[in-house]
Amino acid sequence: DAPAAIILLTDDSVSRGKMTAMDIGIICQTICLAAFSYGLGTCIADQGLMYPETVRKFAGIPDSKQMAISICIGYPDLEFPANKLTSDRISTEEFAAWYGFD
Q1: What residues are paired with 10 via a beta bridge?
Q2: pLDDT tens readout for residues 26-71
Q3: 3-class DSSP assignment, residue 39
Q4: What is residue 16's DSSP assignment?
């Protein structure tokens, strides 16, 4: 039930490839971290782009822009059941090796 969304776009004049995807990922993470520092919650979601024609119409996005990803943003409801979910995780030592950090 986030009240707002941020839609990250690319321009048709920019070639799409690995670097563009990396740039989108970097700015997406930075937006989420900045929002957190202000007490906001975010959810990176491609569901916000499932109806691109509708999103374009209501957000005024021209055809020369490509929608890359959306970020839902708002104040988190810490009592909502999904926000209390925890999952078991393996330890870092089980999937990573660290060399030169003795």
Answers
A1: 66
A2: 999 999 999 999 999 999 998 888 999 999 999 999 999 999 999 9
A3: coil
A4: P
Question: Quick one: 44 exposed, middle or buried, by C-beta within 10 A (0-12, 13-18, 19+)?
Answer: middle
Cα-flanking dihedrals φ and ψ of residue 81, to 5°?
A: -50, -40
- Other beta carbons within 10 angstroms of residue 22's beta carbon come to 10
pTM for the predicted model, two decimal places: 0.77
Q: Are 20 and 91 in contact (CB under 8 A)?
A: no
Strands of 65-74's sheet in order across: 4-11, 65-74, 41-45
- In order of 14, 32, 36, 63, the CA distances from 19 in angstroms are 10, 20, 26, 22
In 1-102, alpha helices (H): 18-37, 52-59
